[in-house]
Design brief:
Mean pLDDT: 83
GO molecular function: metal ion binding; metallopeptidase activity
Organism: Ramlibacter montanisoli
Family: Belongs to the UPF0758 family.
Oligomer: single chain
Strand content: 15-25%
CATH topology of the largest domain: Cytidine Deaminase, domain 2
Keywords: Hydrolase, Metal-binding, Metalloprotease, Protease, Zinc
Low-confidence stretches: none
Structural class: alpha+beta
Protein name: DNA repair protein RadC
CATH class of the largest domain: Alpha Beta
């Protein structure tokens, strides 16, 4: 059924305006954003299928443009670009939180931010959050791609980036495309190597976060730093 054919009190837009966005389900919110379905497939059915495809709203927020393109009804640029815009707004909103306050005053926000950026990448990406003396975010940079080892991640480059941003501390991060967030021995060895290198220029490593779709692990919380 098209949105315009629903009773007025069941239409997502009218329901949102009358009762607030929290009154809408994930499917209704997504249907409101999509506006129309496809031939023989109403917008609510399409919204439900999109959420199922990505295992819910959190998975959808982590989806890439290429992944959205494979969904029936999102092959064209219009709807896909709107969803990607929402994703980018979510990333920027979290980034603003991290820039405005101490990063470890909101550890869940750090994990969510890193998941939004890295969790659904098809290859491993190593990144760093560069922090000021109050542990507020200065910048995030993706530094290396590929299997992470002590030979593929160059400590010198990480140190140079930290100095460039005048960082007092960093949070290291990378993703595991395999879906598990358990650190390998190589992850632990790399963390210690970078911690020692950055200590030479008086930059602290506060954490190393590993992310995968729907999961995040803090090595500091696990006592591995």
């Amino acid at each position: 059924m098209a949105l315009k054919d629903l009773p007025a009190d069941a239409r997502p837009r009218e329901k949102l305006l009358a009762r607030g966005p929290s009154a809408l389900s994930d499917t209704e919110l997504l249907a409101l954003l999509l506006r129309t379905g496809t031939r023989g497939r109403g917008v609510f059915q399409m919204a439900g299928e999109v959420l199922a495809r990505f295992d819910g709203l959190a998975g959808l927020l982590h989806a890439s443009g290429d992944e959205l393109r494979t969904v029936n009804g999102l092959g064209g640029p219009a709807k896909r670009s709107e969803l990607l815009a929402v994703l980018e707004l979510a990333r920027r909103a979290v980034a603003e939180q991290l820039k405005a306050r101490e990063v470890f005053g909101s550890p869940d926000a750090v994990k969510n931010y890193l998941q939004l950026h890295l969790a659904r990448r098809p290859h491993e990406v190593f990144a760093a959050l560069f922090l000021d003396a109050q542990n507020r975010l200065i910048a995030m940079e993706e530094l290396f791609r590929g299997t992470l080892t002590q030979t593929s991640v160059y400590p010198r480059e990480v140190v140079l980036k930290a100095l460039h941003h005048h960082s007092a501390a960093v949070v290291l991060a990378h993703n595991h495309p395999s879906g598990t967030v358990q650190p390998s021995r190589a992850d632990e060895a790399l963390t210690q190597t970078l911690k020692a290198a950055l200590a030479l220029v008086d930059v602290r490593v506060l954490d190393h976060v590993i992310v995968a779709p729907g999961q995040a692990l803090s090595m500091a919380e696990k006592g591995l730093l």
